[in-house]
Design goal:
The chain is flat and about 90 Å long. A hairpin with a 3-residue loop joins strand 7 and strand 8 (about 100-105). It contains no helices and 41 strands. The two termini are about 30 Å apart. It is mostly beta strands.
């Protein structure tokens, strides 16, 4: 069995050990990173063969530009003699060589901005090594013109191994349906865990019915972390000691409920040592119910504290498909203006629900908006996430003045959310009742086509008219408080039908949420279970705990 422990590794292993004392305060400081601690299963491991744990080393370039000089990275292996055996990982890094006392990596290509992978080392417990032994594995680096701060990973022989049992849950549901969530876990390692945390991450349409005083929930938005958007987190803490060989279960009831707006939903649930999860800005609020969720043991044995030997069996992911629909409705727009005037239009659609929609698996856009510009008008300002195309829908390099635009939506569209794209158009020639269109649906070669889950295809297309006869603005439905709360538009929209040109900063918002200003989903995840996992979903499946490795050269 092979395990990978990286910067974004499981809870309990990811607190990154850093030292940041520069040799020259004038030099930029590049920081090496690795797990704070790893545990190795005692020799010979399960099944009579050594069990590998892979440790990833990375270097961060904070300068914002590529460092173009050679660099050298060295891992001191002398403390591991008689404790652990080392081999270069499958991806051994840039010109890395292994000797009995060190791993040396020569990098001649430079260091890209951001985080860069250096080398992966496979570690196994050495024959004759004693459980409980702890040694340091340190990497240092050197390069002209910069200071490279070292990193140290503590390597421990033995440790706890919390294992979560997979619950048998119904995955095809209807809105409002409830089912119990059994939680059973054990410790298959060699050492005890003093206190555990049960973490449950649920999507916007899936929630827990019960509240307990020792279970805190997240209430904070994840601004700047759109991969996590649409999730909430509940953490229940217990002070029980979980000894090797013991199996535990919750002494109480946890019930999952599909909300009226549920559609494609997900749950991640797992257990880790209390306090071992990475620090977070997540705000957790604990209720005051007078009730406390407990644990009860099923078995026993006997046995201090160390990293989990196999963090990847601590949790499980489940996808739910809820029988529901979401009606995306294109908004008609009518403007007036004289030749030579510039008008502003907020073009888009609204989700009339009842379901929210989220494409988490790959973070893809929920829908495409196809906008055809009326004759006589020239687009002078194009919103972000909109691509100019020809009248036939072929790609076009020049963004301004195109006859047609394809705009991508956020990967999360809340129930009752309004999505708009602010355009500016100059009326070059007065054309009576100049008519274009706004369409919304899934991506297609010809532009858009309605989604299978959209129950009303007739309202996926609406007219966009400039100087129509007796033109009056078509009102946009105001978003309700149910579900995500829209934010103000990125730029003010013209009041349709007035023929006026608002000055920058003026105008009245219409409650739309432009791409890049995602509406709130009503629940906020923090770091998900097994720190740094990105949680995503698409199609008939809602999510995947996805570890996104940083790319770059090191």
């Amino acid at each position: 069995m092979r395990k990978r422990i990286s910067l974004l590794a499981a809870a309990g292993l990811v607190a990154v050990g850093l030292a940041t004392t520069p040799a020259n305060a004038a030099d930029p400081v590049f920081t090496l990173t690795s797990p704070a601690e790893i545990g190795l299963r005692p020799h010979p491991g399960d099944g009579g063969g050594p069990q590998k744990t892979t440790v990833d080393f990375r270097v961060g370039n904070p300068t914002g530009s590529e460092f173009e000089h050679p660099s050298t990275f060295t891992v001191d292996l002398s403390p591991l003699k008689g404790v652990a055996d080392v081999a270069l990982g499958e991806n051994s890094g840039h010109r890395c060589t292994l000797t009995a006392t060190a791993v040396t990596c020569e990098n001649v290509w430079g260091i890209s901005t951001g985080e860069n992978w250096v080398v992966a080392l496979d570690l196994t417990a050495a024959k004759g090594s004693k459980p409980g032994t702890v040694v340091d594995l340190t990497m240092t680096g050197a390069a002209q013109g910069i200071t490279i701060a070292p990193t140290t990973t503590k390597v421990r022989i033995g440790g706890p191994d919390l294992v979560m049992e997979e619950a048998a849950l119904r995955t095809k549901l209807v809105p409002g349906e409830r089912q119990p969530l059994p939680v059973v876990f054990g410790n298959t390692g060699t050492e005890s865990v003093k206190g555990v945390a049960l973490e449950l991450d649920t999507t916007h349409g899936m929630g827990l019915v019960e509240q307990y005083d020792n279970c805190a929930t997240s209430e904070k938005d994840t601004t700047g972390k759109p991969w996590n958007k649409g999730w909430s987190m509940t953490v229940c803490t217990f002070d029980n000691e979980i000894k090797p060989g013991e199996v535990w279960e919750i002494a109480g009831v946890l019930t999952l409920e599909a909300a009226p707006h549920a559609f494609m939903e997900g749950l991640i649930y797992g257990v880790h040592e209390a306090g071992s999860q990475p620090k977070s800005t997540q705000k957790l609020s604990a209720p005051r119910t007078g009730r406390k969720l407990g644990l009860t043991t099923r078995a026993a044995k006997a046995a201090p504290r160390a990293a989990d030997l196999d963090p990847w069996n601590n949790r499980h992911d489940i996808d739910f498909s809820v029988k529901n629909t979401a009606d995306l409705v294109a908004d008609a727009t009518s403007l007036k203006g004289k030749a030579g005037e510039t008008v502003r239009a907020e073009l888009g659609f609204r989700n009339e629900g009842p379901a929210w929609i989220a494409e988490f698996r790959l973070g893809e856009d929920v829908a495409r908006v196809d906008i055809v510009i009326p004759a006589g008008a020239k687009v002078t300002k194009v919103p972000e996430h909109c691509d100019a195309v020809t009248a036939d829908g072929d790609p076009r390099e020049e963004r301004l003045g195109a006859p047609r635009y394809f705009c991508g939506t956020p990967h999360v569209i809340g129930e009752r959310q309004v999505v708009g794209f602010p355009f500016e158009l100059k009326i070059e020639t007065f054309v009576a009742s100049a008519t274009g269109s706004v369409s919304v649906g899934q991506w297609a070669d010809e532009g858009t086509t309605p989604h299978a889950w959209d129950p009303n295809r007739a309202d996926n297309k609406a007219v966009f008219v400039i100087n129509g006869k007796d033109a009056t603005p078509t009102p946009t439905a105001a978003p309700t408080t149910a579900g995500p709360t829209p934010t103000a538009p990125a730029s003010p929209a013209a009041t349709p039908g007035t023929g006026t040109t608002p000055s920058p900063g003026s105008g009245t918002g219409n409650g739309r949420t432009p791409h890049g200003g995602l509406a709130e989903t009503g629940s906020a995840p923090g770091p998900l279970l097994i720190a740094g996992a990105a949680l995503v979903a698409a199609g008939g499946a809602v999510f995947l705990a996805l570890r996104r490795r940083a790319t770059g050269r090191a």
